[in-house]
Design goal:
Elements: E1 12-14, E2 26-30, E3 33-37, E4 46-52, E5 59-65, E6 84-91, E7 94-101, E8 105-111, E9 122-126, E10 130-137, E11 144-150, H1 152-155, E12 160-165, E13 178-182, E14 196-200, E15 203-210, E16 217-223, E17 231-236, E18 247-253, E19 259-266, E20 272-281, E21 287-289, E22 298-300, E23 328-329, E24 346-349, E25 351-353, E26 366-369, E27 375-383, E28 391-397, E29 401-408, E30 414-421, E31 429-430, E32 435-436, E33 487-489, E34 495-497, E35 505-513, E36 518-524, E37 529-537, E38 547-555, E39 563-573
Parallel strand pairs: 25-38
Antiparallel strand pairs: 1-22, 2-3, 3-4, 4-5, 6-7, 7-8, 8-9, 10-11, 11-12, 12-13, 14-15, 15-16, 16-17, 18-19, 19-20, 20-21, 23-26, 24-39, 26-38, 27-35, 27-39, 28-29, 28-38, 29-30, 30-31, 30-32, 33-34, 35-36, 36-37
Length: 574
């Protein structure tokens, strides 16, 4: 299943059409099909590939970049680095995607079909701070060009666009480059970036944003010559709407000749969500986007054949132990992180690390985008890791993070734990009191919160074994407390009979994500869901929205530390 489509079912749609962090979108049409890609930064696989036939209903069909290069540099998380602002084009019967890695330069991959096989990354232009590249093959002259922007953090340069002649095979630039648009020479313009270059009506057009991701606008530039000079105009801005900073995206034309523009809106922890705007050409030849230059919230769908409602997949039953294409690792994956098996369920190895206290530093966190609408996230977890300190859970991951899951104690017991770390913190700490997990927990069918059993109460007197009837004075049935004179300490100093401890802990975990990305955590140990800890407000990284994550870890050491199995991952609208 997927979260709710933007298609309202009455011939209209609502924005955003992609309500999650599909950052810096670009789009191309091939025949009756539309394809979109987006920034993926330091996650792998990268360069997501989405497909639509009506520009409203989108599905994720794959990725164009299996691993980031140089591989060693992306063996550990670099959340805000990697793949920035790609451009997708179709030329010479091949798909092409160009992107800028701000630390290495302009790269491209290409393929004969959207599902590949895609080439390995090829470095087109090496250099620091080269970002947001876009190629143009001019069908009128046979020439090829490349335009890109600059990241001041790496190059000391910003607010300008540089153009090159490019080899027609897309492998290299043919000159030193020329600044073709200098934003410093345009009054009031700053942070000019994200160019997309087109040929239309005898003009070279560059559609490029300025003004910053949260407060910016969309600009259009035109010239009779690729190298300029260019005229400029603002063609989309917030106006009186609540859509802040609407800009940076792709223009596409339907088979019927309608024009549309897909762009992003920065929404804090949700990242950069994608809007669809109508585009028309004014009598003066300039593009008019949205409602006379302001974003639309609801609009008639493109004049295209009706399509069933769709959105990128989120749910996963992990058939045969495999995860769906909506998941990405926080760095290049290594062998052994996933244990393949025939049964359904994702079996993650408890990877040993000296950094188990900080999920932000770990490459083996499997993530997907945080939905932009209120929702509830659930997953079932079984921890089979035998190593003391082995843990697994469900996380909301960003510059600050919080997770809920299971951890094995030094005495072999399994505890339900809930932890968090602030943005400035270098290590996590408890967000709620740890709780022992009962043996062979079975989950109630109801999702309504149930009263906490006495076994898990945080206050009150020390727990004792329940009274025995004469017929059950020696043992209890499987899954219930065994009579014992030994007692095991709880983390808050109380004790309970050792027979209640689980050899393999199980729990159902839940995060309710409300408006403003405020997250409420809860858990079910067999008696229904119970709340845990304080409300946690998800936070993004600098350029990346918050992520949902699954992980399994163990402290540094030798030998196999066991595994954790996740089943029935679900995201439902609330």
């Amino acid at each position: 299943m997927s979260l709710t489509s933007a298609d309202l079912g009455d011939g209209t749609y609502r924005n955003p059409v992609l309500d999650a962090d599909w950052s810096d979108p670009d789009v191309v049409r091939v025949g009756d099909d539309f394809y979109l890609t987006a920034s993926s930064f330091g996650r792998a696989p990268g360069l997501p590939l989405l497909h639509s036939r009506d520009l409203v209903n989108w599905t994720l069909v794959g990725h164009a970049l299996e691993r980031l290069e140089p591989e060693d540099e992306y063996a550990s998380p670099r959340h805000d680095c990697g793949v920035w602002a790609p451009s997708i084009r179709h030329h010479d019967d091949r798909f092409w995607i160009f992107w800028g890695d701000p630390d290495h330069g302009v790269h491209q991959v290409n393929a004969p079909a959207i599902r590949g096989p895609w080439t390995r990354p090829h470095l087109v232009k090496e250099g620091k701070g080269l970002i947001d590249p876009c190629p143009l093959w001019d069908d009128e002259t046979g020439d090829a060009y490349l335009v890109h922007a600059w990241a001041k953090s790496r190059s000391g340069i910003k607010n300008r666009l540089t153009g090159h002649r490019m080899h027609p095979d897309g492998t290299a630039v043919l000159d030193e480059g020329k600044v073709i648009v200098d934003g410093d020479r345009i009054p009031g313009w700053f942070t000019l970036e994200g160019p997309k270059v087109h040929r239309h009506d005898g003009w070279f057009w560059i559609l490029a944003p300025a003004g910053g991701v949260e407060t910016g606008w969309q600009g259009a530039f035109r010239s009779r010559d690729f190298f300029g000079p260019y005229e400029e105009r603002v063609v989309l801005e917030q106006g009186d709407t609540d859509v802040n900073g609407p800009h940076q995206g792709g223009w596409v034309r339907t088979p019927a000749g309608e024009d549309w523009f897909l762009h992003f809106q920065q929404r804090g922890a949700y990242g950069r969500v994608v809007h669809l705007q109508p585009l028309r050409w004014g009598t003066d030849g300039w593009p008019v986007i949205g409602d006379e230059g302001a974003p639309v919230a609801v609009h008639a769908k493109p004049d295209l054949p009706p399509q069933p409602p769709a959105a990128p997949a989120t749910d996963d039953d992990f058939p045969g132990g495999r995860y769906g294409r909506q998941w990405q690792w926080t760095a290049n994956p290594r062998g052994g992180w996933v244990t393949r098996h025939s049964a359904d369920g994702l079996r993650l190895t408890c990877v040993r690390s000296a950094d188990v206290h900080d999920l932000r530093t770990l490459p083996n966190v499997l993530t997907q985008r945080l939905p932009g609408r209120p929702c509830a996230v659930e997953v079932e977890l079984r921890l089979a890791g035998e190593e003391p300190g082995a843990r697994a859970g469900l996380a909301v991951l960003g510059d600050a993070f919080s997770w809920i899951g299971l951890q094995r104690g030094a005495d072999g017991t399994v505890h339900l734990v809930h932890r968090f770390a602030e943005q400035v913190a270098e290590t996590e700490r408890d967000a709620a009191y740890p709780r022992l997990v009962p043996q062979q927990a079975t989950f109630a069918p109801s999702r309504r919160p149930a009263r906490s059993p006495k076994l898990f109460e945080q206050g009150g007197p020390p727990l004792a074994a329940p009274p025995e009837s004469p017929s059950t004075s020696s043992t209890r049935a499987s899954g219930r407390l065994a009579e014992s004179t030994h007692r095991t300490p709880l983390l808050d100093g109380r004790t309970l009979p050792a027979g209640a401890l689980a050899p393999e802990g199980r729990a159902r975990l839940r995060i309710e994500i409300g408006r403003g990305a405020r997250c409420r955590f809860s858990y079910d140990l067999g008696e229904g869901f119970l709340p845990s800890g304080q409300v946690f407000s998800a936070t993004p990284w600098r350029w990346v929205g918050a992520l949902l994550g699954l992980f399994a870890l163990a402290p540094a050491g030798e030998g196999h530390a066991g595994a954790a199995t996740f089943t029935h991952f679900r995201i439902t609208s609330t």
